[in-house]
Specification:
single chain; mainly alpha; disordered C terminus
Length: about 220
């Protein structure tokens, strides 16, 4: 049960981190002479949330699609897209989008907060149901993959891109390259989270999740 617990605990820890980042971003203040300085926390939150969503869709959804009721999977995708749309509005408000500039910041952050809570609820339901379907090795390996997926997924919200199946996988690969280019071009820092070391998955878990690891020392 330890591995299953790690999946649920990892989801809760990730959302605690995102919720704290949201409140820090919502409390941003302008810095005289440095107009972009006040938006650093917003940029960090938008990147962290986008990466988390894409990591979940990259790692958990393919397994959930095979093991769980499709209704829950599609409900989660809907909530994920809603959250991404709220993030797009926040980014647009920050950078002066003609549409989003008319929105007040409290309104922007309230929409993000509501969407984040709903996505959290459905992500937790997804993870809890997966833990009833996976054995210990599978769950441990899935938790490990989820923790280390974020550097290889898009760092910006893309609500209109495909989220499921082969199209979603290709879209995430392409958008990761595009986002990485623009993050570098704009000097946008995307912070990395530290993760706790996990127990290595067993051979059966690696086989069932189609992601074998070979220890050279063995």
């Amino acid at each position: 049960m330890i591995a299953e617990h790690h999946l649920v605990q990892g989801t809760e820890e990730s959302h605690q981190h995102l919720a704290a980042g949201l409140e820090t971003a919502a409390a941003m203040r302008s810095v005289p002479g440095e107009p972009r300085k006040g938006f650093e926390h917003a940029d960090n939150f938008l990147a962290a949330t986008s990466r988390h969503l894409n990591a979940v869709e990259s790692v958990l959804l393919p397994v959930a699609h095979k093991r769980l009721d499709d209704d829950l999977v599609h409900e989660f995708v809907r909530a994920s897209k809603d959250l991404e749309t709220a993030l797009v509005n926040a980014k647009g408000r920050e950078y002066g989008s003609a549409y989003a500039v008319t929105m007040r910041w409290p309104e922007v952050w309230a929409a993000v907060r509501t969407s984040l809570r709903e996505e959290h609820r459905l992500e937790l339901a997804l993870v809890e149901q997966l833990t009833t379907e996976l054995d210990q090795d599978e769950a441990a390996h899935l938790a490990e993959r989820l923790e280390h997926a974020e550097p290889d997924v898009p760092s910006r919200p893309h609500p209109h891109a495909p989220h499921l199946g082969a199209k979603g996988k290709v879209a995430r690969r392409v958008l990761h390259a595009v986002d990485s280019f623009w993050d570098t071009a704009e000097g946008r820092m995307v912070p990395e989270r530290e993760h706790r070391p996990r127990k290595k998955p067993g051979l059966m878990g690696q086989y069932l999740l189609a992601d074998p690891r070979f220890d050279e020392e063995e």
